[in-house]
Amino acid sequence: MFSHRFVSASAIVALTLALPLANAGNALATSRDKVFFSSVSGQWKGPGEIVAGKYKGTKFTCNLTGETPDDKIGMSLDGSCRVGVFSQPMKAVVAQAGSGYKGKFLDGAAGKGLDIVSGSVRGNSVVMGINRQKLNGAMVARMASDNTMNITISVKVGETLVPVIGLTLQRDPDSIQVGAIK
Predict the structure, then answer these.
(1) pLDDT per residue over 2-20, tens digit each?
(2) What separation in angstroms does the CA of 180 have from each of 30, 31, 34, 176, 177?
(3) H or E element at residue 1
(4) Contact 132, 109 (CB under 8 A)
(5) Which residue, 166, 176, 178, is CA-closest to 146?
(6) From the CB of residue 98, how many other CB atoms can be counted at a distance below 10 Å?
(7) Are 164 and 42 in contact (CB under 8 A)?
(8) Among 123, 124, 151, which Cα is nearest to 138's?
């Protein structure tokens, strides 16, 4: 039917055409991720609740500042959360690492926080794998609207992810960074 040379030449042409498309796909994913993370910029505040575990029913309020680094794809959220008169500093930093994301919550698993060990942007959400010693789970941040972000933190119990913390943040529209103006 087809000569061996024709099949080999067709394979080379297909690979030659596929490589730029694969790179374009990576560029589109990178661009999409950058757009998502830039949507996190600004001043955020809102209520949260522990919905499972020892402290189930505990309500708290957070005030956070979202920023995106100029030189990387990622984000940081920095501020504090308050329960009654007690306030706890909060900080999460996430940056692109290879085809995924890595970072830490507070001071990472080596301290009193969590490591962010993986992540991907999917539409208007980012899903991050979190880890601390034997604890594994996920953090999902979803942009419900331009000025509303829902965050859910779940831990793995057996083979099931169980939501343990829910948080709804509202952005102060006047705090959004536009272009080079900060």
Answers:
(1) 343 333 333 333 333 333 3
(2) 20, 18, 15, 11, 8
(3) none
(4) yes
(5) 176
(6) 7
(7) no
(8) 151
| Gap between the Cα atoms of 174 and 61, Å rounded | 20
Q: Residue 174 carries which DSSP code?
A: G
The helix (run of H) or strand (run of E) holding residue 133 is none
CA–CA distance, 60 with 46 (Å, rounded to integer): 9
Tell me the torsion sign for CA atoms 78, 113, 138, 160: negative
pTM given for the model = 0.76
**Helix H or strand E segment including 17:** helix 4-38
Q: Which helix (H) or strand (E) holds 108?
A: none
C-alpha distances in Å from residue 108, one per residue of 80, 119, 174? 16, 16, 32
H/E stretch holding 56: none
